[in-house]
């Protein structure tokens, strides 16, 4: 009884243990989903990777779909943090636009490359209303919005048009890097982006930096 009362009187300790367990589950899911695919990875493997039972997993996530959505949301948050850290090193909006390519090279292309987790998710879940697809769609939409905002700050006459062109360059470079193992493609895409940004500067009456 004394032990039970001590446990009941330690909600902070239980909360920390629960958070640590949740963290282990998400870490295991991140590695296994990305390496082996979402559909091919069962919850048993994730529970085993986290050192818990399947029942414990379901006490933290009501379904595998919910776990997948959290896995993608965390990847999105890490990407946004890395991107904003890179952008913070620059002041001029046109330099920030090009810095997005630097962030792609550093965060996405470096290390073991198995493709974009969000594109991979879309390939595995054709239903556009699946929770994971919604997270993946918002991830790409968020990048488009950020590019459009930077394009507007840079004075582009048609910021959405410039943003879409840069977005296509980024995505194409990533897919090529994943398929062919060619990390230099991001640098080549960046040089093409320089031409697009310079053209936008000329269109608004500023001299090209090239």
From TrEMBL:
<dbReference type="Pfam" id="PF16925">
    <property type="entry name" value="TetR_C_13"/>
</dbReference>
<keyword id="KW-0238">DNA-binding</keyword>
<feature type="DNA-binding region" description="H-T-H motif">
    <location>
        <begin position="42"/>
        <end position="61"/>
    </location>
</feature>
<dbReference type="InterPro" id="IPR009057">
    <property type="entry name" value="Homeodomain-like_sf"/>
</dbReference>
<dbReference type="GO" id="GO:0003677">
    <property type="term" value="F:DNA binding"/>
</dbReference>
<protein>
    <submittedName>
        <fullName>TetR family transcriptional regulator</fullName>
    </submittedName>
</protein>
<keyword id="KW-0805">Transcription regulation</keyword>
<dbReference type="InterPro" id="IPR036271">
    <property type="entry name" value="Tet_transcr_reg_TetR-rel_C_sf"/>
</dbReference>
<feature type="region of interest" description="Disordered">
    <location>
        <begin position="1"/>
        <end position="20"/>
    </location>
</feature>
<dbReference type="InterPro" id="IPR011075">
    <property type="entry name" value="TetR_C"/>
</dbReference>
<feature type="domain" description="HTH tetR-type">
    <location>
        <begin position="19"/>
        <end position="79"/>
    </location>
</feature>
<dbReference type="Pfam" id="PF00440">
    <property type="entry name" value="TetR_N"/>
</dbReference>
<keyword id="KW-0804">Transcription</keyword>
<dbReference type="InterPro" id="IPR001647">
    <property type="entry name" value="HTH_TetR"/>
</dbReference>
<feature type="compositionally biased region" description="Basic and acidic residues">
    <location>
        <begin position="7"/>
        <end position="20"/>
    </location>
</feature>
């Amino acid at each position: 009884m004394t032990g039970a009362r001590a446990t009941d009187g330690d909600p902070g300790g239980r909360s920390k243990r629960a958070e640590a367990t949740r963290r282990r589950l998400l870490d295991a899911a991140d590695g296994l989903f990305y390496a082996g695919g979402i559909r091919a990875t069962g919850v048993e493997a994730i529970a085993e990777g986290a050192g818990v039972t399947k029942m414990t997993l379901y006490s933290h996530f009501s379904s595998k779909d919910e776990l997948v959505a959290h896995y993608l949301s965390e990847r999105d948050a890490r990407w946004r943090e890395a991107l904003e850290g890179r952008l913070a090193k620059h002041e001029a909006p046109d330099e920030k636009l090009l810095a997005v390519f630097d962030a792609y090279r550093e965060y996405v292309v470096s290390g073991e490359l198995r493709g974009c987790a969000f594109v991979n998710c879309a390939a595995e879940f054709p239903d556009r209303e699946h929770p994971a697809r919604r997270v993946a769609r918002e991830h790409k939409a968020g990048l488009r919005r950020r590019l459009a905002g930077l394009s507007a700050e840079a004075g582009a006459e048609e910021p959405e048009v410039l943003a879409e062109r840069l977005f296509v360059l980024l995505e194409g470079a990533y897919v090529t890097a994943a398929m062919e193992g060619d990390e230099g493609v991001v640098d080549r895409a960046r040089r093409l982006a320089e031409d697009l940004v310079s053209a936008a500067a000329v269109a608004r009456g500023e001299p090209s930096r090239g």
